[in-house]
Amino acid sequence: MRRSLLLLTMFGLAACSEQERTYTVEELVADEALLSSIIMKCRNNPGELRDTATCQNAESAGGKLRLQRMRQSLGG
């Protein structure tokens, strides 16, 4: 019985550890295609993904890119 419980716990922990990679703001700014796909995924499932580090970083990277484009368009 204890062995079964231990195995079940180990399998449960293994399943939880298979998380998606967390991307940094810099990585997302450098790869706009990746940024776009992550933002789309996060916005399609905000209840589960809004508070994840990758979604927060994607929103920050999107804001950073918008500011860079605004500066460029203003000649700065």
From TrEMBL:
UniProt keyword annotations, A-Z: Lipoprotein
Domain of life: Bacteria
Alphabetized PROSITE patterns for the sequence: PROKAR_LIPOPROTEIN
Protein name listed in UniProt: EexN family lipoprotein
Origin species: Sinorhizobium psoraleae
